[in-house]
Amino acid sequence: MIIAYVLNTYPQPSHSFIRREIQALERQGHQVVRLAMRRAEAPLVDVRDRAEAEQTSYVLDRRVLGLGGALLRRFLRAPGRGLAALRLALRCGRASSSGMARHLIYLAEAAEVANRCETDGVGHIHAHFGTNSATVAMLAHALGGPGYSFTVHGPEEFDAPGALSLGEKLDRARFAVGVSQFGRSQLCRWAAFDSWDHLHVVHCGIEPEAFADPEPAPEGPLRLVSIGRFVEQKGQMVLVHAMVRLVRRHPQVHLDLVGDGEMRPALERAIAKAGLQGNITLTGWLDQDGVRAALDRAHALVMPSFAEGLPMVVMEAMAAARPVVATYVAGTPELVLPGETGWLVPAGDDAALAEALAGLAETPVARLQAMGETGRARVLTRHAIDDQAGKLADLIASFEG
């Protein structure tokens, strides 16, 4: 099959799961055309991301004249389709906080995508996220392009489903997938009952060979790692507050905060105010190998999120045989089993988080190792990328021919 992946900004450091899915499909013999609207603003640290950027076509590189010409050609070839697509774009624009003008841009982007799919013989479009990438995929189909599907991750799509016209996207799609059963349940809230049969679960995947020989749990004082964008939903500020409590009982504990983002200055101020500079290190973004090294140095991963889809870093930590301390949100409890593979705490509760981390610090290393091995077996069974990409390919193939 020839499949077009329609994406907003690609590649990005936090979207390595998309790269793995694409490459797994290619290993299975499918051709994937990468169509992103724009390039990443931040420099790409990982050489794998830089290689993906070289293979990606950027729709907005066509600029106003190119996109306008693409849209005009679609209208001249099929005026009825063009008008129907225009009405759809305006209807979605009225529902959205981004407005109708932005949706007219999406329509022009969709025309370029439809033309490119025609040129390359694409039989199916798949988008990641139910936001503007799914809008472009839906409009490209309305303009006469191939049928589409999309993966919904959350939490953004679940925060504003009406403004995203999520129900319309689901009902028009060949199928849609959530990355967890929780995610699929949220799609059921917005899809018509008749569309429920077209809603599936396809997990994001890991590459088992990248975790073939996990390091044993380290000896010595507790070392923690937390990985993610520095934004409110990831809950790093709650983790800093929990560290204040934890250090009173375990003064030698150390936390690596891996990532970057808009909250970095606030986190730096909070760490300095609490006098935790010796206990918390902000590493910045690390490439895939750097993330693996950070996991290997740690006893456990901490994921203090307020909202999630199903965090890739939880899967990666479990594959590296590390227990996980996380919050009871979204699909996380489908992976992290209290007492077996880690700890779960209420989101936003720094006292409960500190207590869980103290329990972790007081757990013998041999027990942590056993929990890590249980988690590793669980995630390798549920999230091997070739298996998950195969599920997606089977869904796409059911509409081919």
UniProtKB/TrEMBL annotation:
Lineage: Bacteria, Pseudomonadati, Pseudomonadota, Alphaproteobacteria, Rhodobacterales
Keywords on record: Glycosyltransferase, Transferase
Protein name in the entry: Glycosyltransferase
Keyword Cytoplasm attributed: no
MF GO annotations: glycosyltransferase activity
One Pfam entry name: Glyco_trans_1_4
Domain of life: Bacteria
